[in-house]
Amino acid sequence: MSSAKGLRCPECSAALRPPAEGQREAKCEYCGVVARIPGNRTEQIKAVLQTAVAKKSPSPYAKPAVWIVIIILAPLVLPIVFGILIAIVSIIAALVAVGIGKESGDLSLPLGASLQWSGTSAAMMYDVNGDGITDPIGHVRLIRPDKQTEHLGAFDAVTGKQIWLTQAICDLSSAQELTAALMQDTLLYVDPQGGMKALSPMTGQLLWSAPLEERAERICAVSAGLAFVELRDKRRLRVELATGQVSPAGQADDAVPCSGVWPDKPGHTPFFSIEDWRSRAQRDLPDVPGMRVDKLIRDLTSNAVIALGSRAVGTRIPSAASIVETMVLKEPAGKGRKRPPQLMAKVDTRWLSNVPSQNPLTVSEKEPTTGAIAIGRLIVPYEMSGTPSSERLACLDLTTGRALWDVEIPKSETGDVAAVVANDRMLFVSMWTYLHIFDLATGAHRATIGKWM
To answer: What topology is assigned to 102-263 in CATH?
Structure first.
């Protein structure tokens, strides 16, 4: 009997009454469990544990009624559960489609939509996220199976990630009528319906709106807090950037030059501008020796002038030349009555270089149509020969014309380069559906904004 001393019931832990002499079983007076008690202490513990397991592990088929209920209810319950899950997913998709966070200018992409950069517009540069590096702002479009819409968006200059995106401004059919410009701390745009709106370039939030009842031809900044909007019907309006107050421009305003604005149109930035050579040739500007000139790039900070074109003799290799324009008095040619000297333009060439640094005979015989100037560098895109054709980007030293780097533009088979702009670290190349970001110092490709369909 001493062997059972100190034992407790394996079911309820109550003390077991010692069994009679010679017996090896003890029944719990509280829960009725019968425990077998061997003489050896180790066997005693094993026996108690075995008794407890046997008590607590009934057969899984002991209650068949439970399985009958599960089998009957499963076909009824499962469709309800799936229906609830589908409803939750639909609600989330609807919230995304209408844009969560409208007030902040942040619009998540709808399900099934792709974002494309509008290849006919140039990036406008502003330090959106406050990291000291100017970021690209520009036209983007959302492509969905049911509709295609035009937006304005801001993206990180280093990573290409979206910072903010406006609600839809118009559909794709009228996107060419959308005009935007960045000036001071205001992003101004006129939509195809003649509505003018001002946004914060840092958040995309609406600051004010004003009806113009006409589409815009150009947006100009003329002084601190004041902008001019030139309309299709040739009217010119004064716009107070702080309040949105609009008034007709006076005759004195027409003489004020347009400056200090970063428009969305290719070839115009606060730092350089691109003009057509043919318009200057009409003013008796002589040809650049050895070149067929198509475009001029003027550096607005250093007054350097770069001619873009191709070699005049032999294969039309894309070329660039640094030129100096001066005005000189020249005696009129011809016999007869002597005429007074005329003031004529003269062009001196500082350097003339091939744009491509690789074999020029692998390049398409086309004159470059765009480029950029930034921190002493000239950047020019050019096209390779072959089918499909691809484009490359060449960088030349602005002072000497020496080649610095020459790299391929990814996915350039989709279309031509429309515009090139830069900050002091990065280069932004606009083309059909994409905005490519390159390192200005090395030409390394850093990111791509937008994608094909």
So the answer is: Lipocalin (2.40.128)
